[in-house]
Amino acid sequence: MTRVDVAVVGSGPNGLAAAVTMARAGLSVHVHEQAATVGGGLRGATLFDSEVWHDLCAAVHPMAAASAFFREFDLAARGVVLLRPSIAYAHPLDGGAAAVAYHDLAATCDRLGPDGRRWQRLMGPLVRHSAGVTDFLLSGQRSLPDDLAAPLLLGPRILEHLLRANGMRTEPARALLTGVAAHAMGRLPSVAAGAIALLLGHLAHATGWPLPQGGSVRIAEALADDLRSHGGTVHTGHQVTDLAELDARVIMLDTTPRSLLALAGDRLPQRYRRALKRFHYGPAAAKVDFLVSEPIPWANPEVGGAGTVHLGGTRAETLTTENSAVRGVGGAEPFVLVVDPAVTDPGRAVGGRRPVWAYAHVPNGDARDPVPLITRRIEKYAPGFADTVIASRGVPATEYESYNPNYPGGDIGAGAVTLTQSVFRPVPAWNPYRTPLPGVYLCSASTPPGPSVHGMCGYLAARAALRAEFNVTTIPRLGPDDGAGPAQRR
Ligand SMILES: Cc1cc2nc3c(=O)[nH]c(=O)nc-3n(C[C@H](O)[C@H](O)[C@H](O)COP(=O)(O)OP(=O)(O)OC[C@H]3O[C@@H](n4cnc5c(N)ncnc54)[C@H](O)[C@@H]3O)c2cc1C
Predict the structure, then answer these.
(1) Domain 4-46+214-279+417-489: which topology?
(2) Is residue 100 very low, low, confident or very high in pLDDT (cuts 50, 70, 90)?
(3) Mutual orientation of helices 191-203 and 116-128 as an angle, nearest 10°?
(4) Domain ranges of the chain
(5) 29 with 227: CB under 8 angstroms?
(6) What pLDDT is recorded for position 483?
(7) Measured between alpha carbons, how far is 378 from 201 in angstroms, rounded to an integer?
(8) How many angstroms does the Cα of residue 108 sit away from the middle of ligand 1?
(9) Which of 304, 331, 362, 453 is 20 to 30 A from 375 in CA distance terms?
(10) 57 in contact with ligand 1, CB cutoff 6 A
């Protein structure tokens, strides 16, 4: 293999974002992927001998709709249609009750009754400063934000979230907000979970919580197409086991610190190795892909219009189950996220069959079969669901790592999301992407700003490497219309 400027290990959204950015700077880029297809957490497949497409990992994309990387890359202009449900997320409660977050903020506030005004005061200003808030939270947080209102709005709100659930007094509003905070997959309440609740919570009323028409794989395909059209190449089906395999001036690792330790061995200085070993992994996901014969029969029919459904019960119940998972205790009623993609994208139902995507938050390394666990949880709020199931496939937390080495013990965040590990991810350093090995960078969700499909870890790592290794200070343009506008200088 001939020497290239940049070798990228891993083709998840961050690896591809790094690859695209560096290819756009005119460098030769080669991506190495252990799986048979590109995309990492964006991959999907047909299962159960049917033509129905299942998202194997990520399904819903508030971050891809809003992040600076994807705003620049412009998915829509590449034919990726982000379908935005009018109800971003719903949270069923006992007795057929439910709390609902509409895309429309005013409608959400109306529905929340006595807490409506408080929801408006919480989310309204964030929605008005949405790009600034998003860019601040999805940054490396090592420079002044462009919109100074963002930290000023977020600071007091995060504190209030920590102390008193942002003042929400009724159970539906408290449960609704706690369900969004649970996306942090960590201790509740916490600063990190508060920041995630405000980021995802306000995005529901701004750019929305969309699903890509046809599945998440469309995003990976758009990134890979752009890479190839700028001279990049992708090699699938081979796991890189040693950095020495790669003949490149710069190596970008879309991997965890644990993999970096394995790939580099004792070439890394002792101190850095010790720091990487201190990086810890959080609770895990256990997922079920269902093939069903009809839409989920939610007891509250309004829940059936939601893109995403959170099954966590009351605020107190969600706090208990999430904190138990952090402590390594797996309960019988875990927090579960459910998506029936055909609600938002009717084309996902084929011949009267449709996919249902659901995963539970469980302790790291939990070996339980999630099928009965998750089926029971959905049945509780949608009696009769089990009768609609034609086939199901459970992936316990312990199996995720063999599917994707970036999910140690089933931690799909590639590292616990705590306050310290959000900023000092993976180690305390001004430039968290650069490793002590010359030309070797980390660019995965184990670096700031952390998990989700936003491409920002790869984008920021690529910019750091372009500056330091190639003296490229002009940020390459990423849009599909090459040469149409000025590049940015930083
Ligand atoms: C069940 C589940 C549901 C999720 N739901 C959502 C969601 O709805 N919305 C959302 O925004 N996010 C979601 N996520 C999280 C999201 O998928 C990840 O945060 C995101 O994919 C991280 O991107 P990444 O590029 O850092 O890593 P990944 O997407 O994990 O990609 C890493 C890639 O590197 C490859 N790789 C690793 N090591 C090597 C090696 N040594 N050699 C070759 N290849 C290697 C892996 O095979 C993989 O393809 C979900 C994740 C899971 C698992």
Answers:
(1) FAD/NAD(P)-binding domain (3.50.50)
(2) very high
(3) 80
(4) 4-46+214-279+417-489, 280-411
(5) yes
(6) 45
(7) 23
(8) 32
(9) 453
(10) yes
